[in-house]
Amino acid sequence: MVRYMKVSDRSFLPAFSLLLIVLFTVSCGGGNEPEPVERRDVLHIAAASNLSYVMPQLIEEFKARNGEYMHSDIKVTKASSGSLTAQIRNNAPFAVFLAANKAYPLALYRDSLTVGPPVVYAEGLPVMVYKKELACRTGVDCLAGSSVKRVAIAQPDLAPYGKAALDILERAGVLEEVRGKFVFGASVTQAFQHAATAADAGFIAASLLYGDSGKQLDEAGMVRMDFAPGDYTASVLQQGMVLLDPSSVIAASFFRFMQSESAGEVLRQYGYRVE
């Protein structure tokens, strides 16, 4: 004899309720956290030339720590800070500006072209590279010697590292003796190329001495000279950044990332000072 279960039967209610709970839980993903939505944002960064070799590592670290942007398209335009500032004033589509000093982004902020004031993300370090045969172990006064014909520096009006070079030479008391030997680069990376191929010495960023670029100088028979903070005005190379696009979510995320310890560790590995 077949017995039909009535809904009103009390023994049926607990089992029926349990079934509903199970079905509801499954439909809601079992209570697990939803997976992050993969984004396909495009981010265009204006970066000072001294960041040329560290930018790929910063972008890689940013994506590793922000998985939703793993497949986002991050474009980087590298040039002198002065050149990039001019492009921004002419409506270049940058969302973040990483400069080689505070002055350029501060000027943009004062003209209401940024989202908030500049934030210092690192301090750049200047170095001099010179041919091994030059007697430069005691300081930059060797550049005044007759054996030195060309000294590469970045254009001071466009690149803060060029200003730092002038400051170092002036404090050493040899600026006027060396001035006529300058070979100018439009950016610190161009000054690096001049130093490696056509000059006897050059003032560049320490960050450009990593990876293949460092090997290039070794092959050119050049060595480096470091400077103490008292040899130049360190604040000249306090590198500031500004957010330019208030509507870009990925730009705001990258801007926050550049202030993190993770970004700071990458920058230290490439010759920057980060507090």
Question: How does this model look, in words?
Answer:
With 275 residues, this protein is of the alpha/beta class. The chain has two domains: 42-123 and 236-269, D-Maltodextrin-Binding Protein, domain 2 (3-Layer(aba) Sandwich); 126-226, Periplasmic binding protein-like II (D-Maltodextrin-Binding Protein, domain 2, 3-Layer(aba) Sandwich). 35% of the residues lie in helices and 19% in strands. The chain has helices at residues 12-27, 55-65, 81-89, 103-110, 160-172, 175-178, 188-197, 212-219, 249-257, 261-269, and strands at residues 42-48, 73-79, 96-98, 119-123, 126-131, 151-154, 182-185, 201-205, 222-226, 238-243. The strands form two sheets. The protein has a five-stranded mixed β-sheet with strand order 2-1-3-10-4, with helices on both faces. The chain has a five-stranded mixed β-sheet with strand order 7-6-8-5-9, with helices on both faces. Helix 2 packs antiparallel against helix 10 (261-269). It is globular. It starts with 11 loop residues before the first helix and ends in a 6-residue tail after the last helix. The model is unreliable at 1-31 (pLDDT under 50).
Q: What is this structure, in a nutshell?
A:
With 275 residues, this protein is α/β, with parallel strands linked by helices.
